[in-house]
Amino acid sequence: MTEQPGTPMPRDGGWHAYTDHARRLSALMHDERARADQQAAATRDGQAAVDQATQRLAAQRQHLVALAATLRLAEPHVGVVAPSPVPDPQEALRRAAAAADAADTAAAHAHRRAAQPPLLPGVTPLARNALVYTAAATLATFVSLLMFAVSPDADFGRIPWHLVPWSLCGLPALAFFAGYLTISLVGQPRIGGGGTRSARAGGVICFVGMPILWFIFIAATRG
Predict the structure, then answer these.
(1) How many domains does one find in the chain?
(2) Is residue 26 a part of any domain in this protein?
(3) How far apart, in whole angstroms, are the C-alpha atoms of residue 140 and residue 131?
(4) What are 184-216's pLDDT values in tens digits?
(5) Residue 215 is inside which H or E element, if any?
(6) 97: burial class by Cβ within 10 Å (0-12, 13-18, 19+)?
């Protein structure tokens, strides 16, 4: 190799310093590229998480609107979302996901509640309806016995025949319709199937059970 005139040759110490600085610069550039790649990957992951959360919130909003319409409730109002006070984006996304999970849980709970009638939600439809008709028939029977007790004919030991149509037909009909109306108002689920009014069972309880109780009462009082 021919030396160029006027070009000083670096000494050994200067050359080692030069190569050392070159290695450090190369390591710094490698670290910066790795950091830049990590930041780019974190940005892509964050954007994907934001897109996923946005899609989930949109689907959740549609579900809540449909659920409110099914339950015959006012449409939920979703206002402008305020900026998150959490500076860490990952923590903000975690909190948003937790809030969305809580909203899904609440919606599922409301759906389960709506699938059950307000009155006696833990029993079967037949048992619920039988209890309602029985309660109405019991109340009507008490009214019938009270009418007999306060009738002037009872003081003379006579049967108040003018009350017999009420006891055998009128009050059982009122008991039946009272039970039917109660079941229709508070004994039916808002959504889903499974609702029944058990009119046949109500007819047996009111139009058969009440006259039997009436005849038992007459036999007991006349005996």
Answers:
(1) 2
(2) yes
(3) 14
(4) 888 888 776 656 888 999 999 999 999 898 888
(5) helix 210-222
(6) middle
The tokens for 178 are: 């009272």
Output 95 or 212, whichever has higher pLDDT.
212
Tokens of 205: 């309880």
Place of tokens 């409730």: 73
Q: What is the pTM of this model?
A: 0.59
DSSP output for 20-55: HHHHHHHHHHHHHHHHHHHHHHHHHHHHHHHHHHHH
* Beta carbons of 209 and 133 less than 8 angstroms apart: no
Q: What is the enclosing helix (H) or strand (E) of 74?
A: none
CA distance 115 to 103: 18
69 within some domain: yes
Q: Which residues neighbour 180 within 8 Å (Cβ) at sequence distance 6 or greater? A: 197, 199, 202
The SS3 call for residue 82 is coil
The whole domain housing 160 covers 125-222
Question: Is the Cβ–Cβ distance between 217 and 148 less than 8 Å?
Answer: yes
Contact between 112 and 182 (Cβ < 8 Å)? no
Dihedral (CA of 201, 202, 203, 207) sign: positive
Q: Is there a domain that residue 80 lies in? A: no
- The backbone torsions φ and ψ at residue 128, rounded to the nearest 5 degrees and listed phi first, read -60, -50
Same domain (yes/no): 110, 129:
no
